[in-house]
């Protein structure tokens, strides 16, 4: 049994695992191989940090245990993943009581694989599980009931069966089965978000490595963005580049151009690029689970004054937000520097949500903080050192021919922030200029 799996929860010292950040040094984006000649990401240290953060958040809550079906929370607790296909199946689950290391129920043979290749988990905590595959197997088959009884037995063993059980996402039959066992089921997503909001330096390096992959994607896009190419072709090129370079999940790539730019449709089509088109892209992918949300706007060969003006406004709005970022700032102050929905063509903040926007990044695309005029003005949230989030702005061109979309990923440092999205964006980028 590994040293990590032998640790009792109370033995995990977060300060020892993640000492103070040294912001005077560059944040590295090392190669992906393990080497003996320099320190890179320490994945066992990463596991101990994440587990320690979750245990601390559980201890500070009124819950006795955490039951997770959200794959991002499962990975945070167990450092185990079995692929993108599991994202929407709600078929895997993990239990953390605070009195022991995590239990993991995985899909069929994955459990026995973990017992061989995941020594940081205790062998008898790696179990096979089967529920309903989102209703494909009827609840009458009894799998939900059997799982609930197994969970209750473990809660009794760990001495927390009389305390509330926190659950993040759940199929209704599973919820009903847990309640039928007499459990007080409550929401645990806020507890897990508490744990996940402050990143260790290993997490920050992984986020930086993930962003560096998208830097390369945009260079590839810039080389290929020309008349005759189509949105879907650039999406395909970007997907290949990312998987070739180690991405474990290309969640989505938006490719939006020309008349499709306003309003923003959040997708891609087979539209062919034309001379003078304004085009923006969003690359959402992950490296070792750590995600990017990374917009850039590029023009095809040339630009109009209206397109350039839209870009300058979007750049001004994002720069005004970045300048404010520091520990102790509340998110309403960032939202206040962004234009009201009516100022860029929308009837309400709900309709404009996601356009002047900020959101935390980590194992999920949307973590804390969420920043927008819709949310933040009445519900401000305080920034802390070690948070990582994206800021994004949008401005349609006045003549209706395009729109500008810019996004930067920032790390909150001791006295400000550090930008890790490095493809040029201070000026409107003209690809293959005429």
What's the layout of helices and strands?
Layout: H1 3-6, H2 14-17, H3 43-59, E1 65-68, H4 71-78, E2 93-96, E3 103-107, H5 110-117, E4 126-129, H6 143-157, E5 165-167, H7 172-180, E6 185-187, H8 189-196, H9 201-224, H10 231-244, E7 249-257, E8 278-287, E9 290-291, E10 294-300, H11 305-324, H12 331-336, E11 357-360, E12 367-371, E13 388-396, E14 403-412, E15 417-419, E16 429-431
Helix pairs in contact: 3-8, 6-7, 9-10
Pfam families: Peptidase_M24 (PF00557)
Keywords: Aminopeptidase, Hydrolase, Protease
Domain Peptidase M24: 211-414
Helix and strand element order? HHHEHEEHEHEHEHHHEEEEHHEEEEEE
Uncertain residue segments: 1-6
Span between N and C termini?
63 Å
How many helices? 12
Portion in strands: 15-25%
């Amino acid at each position: 049994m590994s040293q990590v799996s032998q640790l009792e929860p109370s033995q995990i010292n977060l300060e020892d695992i993640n000492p103070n950040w040294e912001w005077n040094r560059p944040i590295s984006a090392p190669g992906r191989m393990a080497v003996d000649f320099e320190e890179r990401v320490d994945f066992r240290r990463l596991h101990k940090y994440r587990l320690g953060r979750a245990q601390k958040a559980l201890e500070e809550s009124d819950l006795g245990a955490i039951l997770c079906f959200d794959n991002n929370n499962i990975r945070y607790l167990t450092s185990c993943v079995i692929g993108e296909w599991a994202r929407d199946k709600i078929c895997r689950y993990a239990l953390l009581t605070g009195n022991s290391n995590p239990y993991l129920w995985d899909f069929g043979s994955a459990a026995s694989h973990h017992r061989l290749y995941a020594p940081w988990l205790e062998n008898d905590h790696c179990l096979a599980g089967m529920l309903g595959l989102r209703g494909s197997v009827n609840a009458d088959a009894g799998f939900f009931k059997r799982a609930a009884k197994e969970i209750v037995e473990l809660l009794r063993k760990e001495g927390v069966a009389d305390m509330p059980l926190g659950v993040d996402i759940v199929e209704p039959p599973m919820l009903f089965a847990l309640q039928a066992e007499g459990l007080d089921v409550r929401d645990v997503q806020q507890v897990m978000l508490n744990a996940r909001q402050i990143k260790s330096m290993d997490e920050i390096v992984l986020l930086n490595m993930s962003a560096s992959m998208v830097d390369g994607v945009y260079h590839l896009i810039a080389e290929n963005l020309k008349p005759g190419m189509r949105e879907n072709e650039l999406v395909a090129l970007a997907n290949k580049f990312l998987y070739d370079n180690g991405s474990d999940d290309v969640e989505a790539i938006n490719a939006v151009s020309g008349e499709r730019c306003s309003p923003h449709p959040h997708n891609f089509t087979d539209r062919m690029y034309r001379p003078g088109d304004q085009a923006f892209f969003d690359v959402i992918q992950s490296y070792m689970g750590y995600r990017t949300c990374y917009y850039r706007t590029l023009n095809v060969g040339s630009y109009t004054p209206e397109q350039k003006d839209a870009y300058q406004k979007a750049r001004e709005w994002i720069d005004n937000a970045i300048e404010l970022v520091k520990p102790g700032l509340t998110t309403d102050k960032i939202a206040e520097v962004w234009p009201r929905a009516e100022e860029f063509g929308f009837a309400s903040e709900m309709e404009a949500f996601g356009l002047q926007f900020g959101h935390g990044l980590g194992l999920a695309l949307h973590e804390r903080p969420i920043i927008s005029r819709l949310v933040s003005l009445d519900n401000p949230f305080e920034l802390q050192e070690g948070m990582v989030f994206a800021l994004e702005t949008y401005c349609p061109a006045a003549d209706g021919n395009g729109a500008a979309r810019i996004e930067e990923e920032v790390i909150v440092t001791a006295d400000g922030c550090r930008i890790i999205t490095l493809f040029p964006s201070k000026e409107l980028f003209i690809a293959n200029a005429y």
